[in-house]
Amino acid sequence: SKFDGQSWKTYTKSNSVLRSNVINALLADKQNRIWVGTPKGIYVIVNGTLMDYSFNLPDQNVMGIAESKGGIIWTAISG
Questions:
Q1: Please, which residues have CB within 8 angstroms of residue 20's CB and are 6 or more apart in sequence?
Q2: Which residues on neighbouring strands pair with residue 50, listed in sequence order?
Q3: How deeply is 38 buried, as exposed, middle or buried, from its count of CB atoms within 10 A (0-12, 13-18, 19+)?
Q4: CA 35, CA 74: separation in Å to the nearest integer?
Q5: 3-class secondary structure for the chain?
Q6: What is the reported pTM?
Q7: What whole-number distance in Å separates Cα of residue 68 and Cα of residue 63?
Q8: Residues 21, 16, 9: CA angle, nearest 5 degrees
Q9: What is the pLDDT along the chain (79 residues), one digit of tens a residue?
């Protein structure tokens, strides 16, 4: 769930592009994007819009997310 200062928005499989309701990892990056790692992919919230960034991941089970000093997003996957 995300709080915008006035109300909560809850992202679930039934109301968004999420393919899992389980969250393994979260990251707020330098550009104020929120990265969400799940057992079924990685997603990013930009300006309130949740987008699937799971394309080309060799394993969809994202266990960790980190950002390099240069702004590159890294994922730790179970496979």
A1: 13, 38, 39, 40, 41
A2: 45
A3: buried
A4: 11
A5: CEECCCCEECCCCCCCCCCCCCCCEEEECCCCCEEEEECCEEEEEECCEEEECCCCCCCCCEEEEEECCCCCEEEEECC
A6: 0.90
A7: 17
A8: 80
A9: 888 899 999 999 999 999 999 999 999 999 999 999 999 999 999 988 999 999 989 999 999 999 999 999 999 998 7
Extract the tokens encoding 65: 């997310």
Which token pair is 64? Answer: 């960790």
Terminal Cα distance for the chain, rounded:
28
